[in-house]
């Protein structure tokens, strides 16, 4: 681990960003050029003290999970992310696996979406980043690890929990969509990928998955509209718009209600409820 190179790299990239570049309010007087250390720590979901010690060349070696969070917070390109891993004493992420590095171009769009739910997904339907309103609508999935990060895994292994977001009459369609999307991903990523591992695990754990997998449906697209259920505000019908990276590895999914609809009113109410929870520290 090259502490000096790591500290200099973090400091320079932090200084090059502005609050408005990452979806933060500029605020009044700012004493530092670029982002403050506490703002980077907030974006990376780590303590301010931990981040400060990295810039001061006295912190412990960061884990790969911490480095991935820093790469997202600092809006690093893939080459910059790989350099960050190496100066921190780790190998760059294996290109064979599904890529968790969030495309900076998608992040810039997500940063500007405040009044509509939006999230960035991997090929395996892993939520890489979600805005506050998406978190209020769908829950915070950042705590999931391993295969449980994939919505497809949770859909078939924990149906009582995952399917509660959808009306019962939409479950069959969602099941087929999950399987057909996973089949497309497994073909793209190959037999050594997390996609292949996910398929093998689901074949062991879900007869429903096995039956659908044998139908060989292949599709990678999002429904034009869907109805989502929230325990406090009820059913919300949204239109789905998907923006893909050039290589198709990640998707920015934006969920918008029809103007003037009941769904729009319920989303506004949900935004208020989410803000109140954050203020209350829940």
TrEMBL record:
Organism in which the protein naturally occurs: Amnibacterium endophyticum
Domain HTH cro/C1-type, chain residue ranges per copy:
34-81
State the superkingdom.
Bacteria
Where in this protein does the record put region Disordered?
A: 166-188
According to UniProt, the name of this protein is Helix-turn-helix domain-containing protein
Q: Where is the composition biased (Basic and acidic residues)?
A: 166-175
| Signal peptide interval | none
Q: What Pfam families does the entry give?
A: HTH_31, MLTR_LBD
């Amino acid at each position: 681990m090259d502490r000096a190179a790591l500290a200099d790299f973090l400091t320079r990239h932090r200084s090059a960003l502005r609050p408005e570049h990452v979806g933060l309010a500029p605020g009044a007087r700012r004493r530092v050029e670029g982002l403050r250390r506490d703002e980077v720590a907030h974006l990376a979901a780590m303590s301010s003290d931990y981040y400060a010690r990295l810039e001061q060349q006295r912190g412990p070696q960061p884990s790969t999970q911490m480095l991935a969070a820093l790469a997202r917070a600092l809006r690093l390109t893939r080459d910059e992310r790989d350099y960050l891993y190496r100066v921190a004493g780790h190998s760059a992420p294996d290109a064979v696996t599904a890529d968790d590095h969030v495309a900076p171009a998608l992040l810039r769009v997500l940063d500007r979406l405040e009044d509509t739910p939006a999230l960035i997904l991997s090929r395996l339907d892993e939520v890489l980043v979600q805005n506050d309103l998406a978190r209020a609508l769908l829950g915070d999935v950042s705590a999931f690890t391993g295969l449980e990060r994939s919505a497809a895994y949770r859909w078939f292994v924990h149906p009582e929990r995952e399917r509660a977001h959808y009306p019962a009459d939409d479950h069959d369609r969602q099941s087929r969509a999950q399987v057909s999307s996973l089949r497309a991903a497994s073909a793209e990523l190959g037999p050594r990928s997390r996609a292949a591992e996910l398929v093998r695990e689901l074949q062991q754990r879900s007869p429903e998955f096995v039956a659908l997998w044998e139908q060989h449906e292949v599709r990678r697209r999002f429904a034009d509209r869907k109805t989502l259920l929230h325990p406090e505000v009820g059913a919300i019908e949204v239109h789905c718009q998907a923006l893909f990276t050039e290589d198709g590895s990640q998707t920015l999914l934006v969920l918008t209600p029809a103007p003037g609809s009941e769904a729009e009113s319920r989303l506004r109410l949900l935004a208020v409820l989410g803000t109140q929870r954050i203020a209350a520290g829940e």
